Amino acid sequence: MAEQDHESNETLVDIREGNEMNRGGLGFSRRTLLQGLSAAGVAVTLSKPALAVQKTIKIGWVIPQTGPLALFAAHSVFVIEQIKKEYGGQIKIAGATYPYEIILKDSQSSPNRAAEVALDLIIKDKVDLICASATPETTNPVADQCELNGVPCVTTGTPLEAWFLGRNGDPKKGFDWTFNFFISAAKGMASFINIWKRVETDKRIGVLFPNDIDGNTFARIFPEIAKQNDIGNYQVFDPGRFDTPVSDFSTQIAALKGNGADICLIVAPAPVFTVFWNQAAQQGYRPKVLTPGKVGEFPAGVTPFGDRAINFNIEVWWSRYFPFVSSLTGQSCPELAGAFEKFANVQSSMALGYDHAIFEVVFDTLKRTQDVTKRESIRDALRDTNLKTVAGTVNFQKGPFPNTADTLVVGGQWRKGKKWPLDLVIVDNALATDIPVNSEPQAIAY
Question: Is 234 within 8 Å of 204 (Cβ atoms)?
Fold first, then answer.
């Protein structure tokens, strides 16, 4: 990669040769990415340096642009474009104007890589604040590096339990430098359990959880969540953790069939889920209800299955149907989704709302910082965040765990679309009645 001057007034993005953005079915090639970054004003001078200010605010962003979790990163170029339009490369803090840089790093869907690039941002780039998005495989190692090195960090896209408990957080102490906003796994599970209860089934549930932070956390809390959500008369079958990647689910599928599991919950990235669902068809496993975590949230994750994806159900943490407004741009949820789809010519996903909201939190934090030359001051402003964003209110004082903010979630299903092949509609809003319902729950038809 060509040398880039980190002291110039630029927004910088780390793009490595050979990286392909279309590995997760996103429809972005590396050439398209670079063209988009150029259009977004990235790695070009945005404005003249502020003569009275020496410091450039450096913001690191770690996100899985490549690898099996790349579905989460489809909106990164667009988000940077939105920030450039709003701020033009400068931000006012405590009466002074500062240039800023956004340094984008690819975790490559690897926890080890996420930790490595986070440390690079801290040691080499000397960033003032780091944000990270998308599942504990990225957010947790990034947050751990920030906690160890005393760097303010805000993350999203990871359920609160997987972030806090997955990092061995102490509810009596919390963390000093790191914060996470997203839905809780408990409410996420409750949102699709509410749908399960409204579809006629034999009340037999099969769960397939991977042997990773998400899977082990979900396996740990699912029995209690099920009990709390009044499905004590349902039978739950769990054949045990599976390691990824995996090329054969025959044993698990035979067990699900043998136990009559007509409700199935699987948590797996797109390539792994593809193996499972194709083999389920081959082996005649036809659940009436299917909840595919880490896939069902994304158009690119379900569209390849065509009609076989109709009535997949999933928790919905953001949608064009949500009634929120961005504090950064003033856009409503449908306006933000429409702007992305015009920009990229691909369907937006719920990750858009949170990738946008994380920078709402970042810039709100910086504006409230008393002394931007001190990381402790940035950390204190981040800790005191209470902001209405396009993803809902982010308030780190309310928990449910220290250093976390719990956002809203409803239940949705994929249906035939009009503009796009499939559309995720909201079918249950018991957990957030202010969010409108579009349809009623339905069983999968074969």
Answer: yes
Rounded alpha-carbon distances, angstroms, from residue 79 to 37, 104, 283: 10, 12, 42
Q: How far is CA 313 from CA 71, 181, 211, 245, in A?
A: 18, 23, 23, 24
Side chain identity at residue 342, one-letter code:
K
CB atoms within 10 A of CB 189: 25
Give the SS3 label for residue 303.
Answer: helix
Residue ranges of domains in the chain, CATH in brackets = 30-183+321-406 (3.40.50.2300), 190-316+410-428 (3.40.50.2300)
Rounded (5°) CA angle 173-174-175: 120
Residues 286-314 pLDDT 10s = 999 999 999 999 999 999 999 999 999 99
Using CA atoms in the order 356, 362, 364, 370, what is the torsion angle rounded to 10 degrees? -170
Q: What is the pTM of this model?
A: 0.85
Residue 75 has pLDDT above 90, yes or no: yes
134-153 pLDDT per residue, tens:
999 999 999 999 999 999 99
Of 42-51, 195-204, 323-332, the poorest mean pLDDT is in: 42-51
What is the DSSP pairing of strand 422-428 with strand 410-416?
Answer: antiparallel
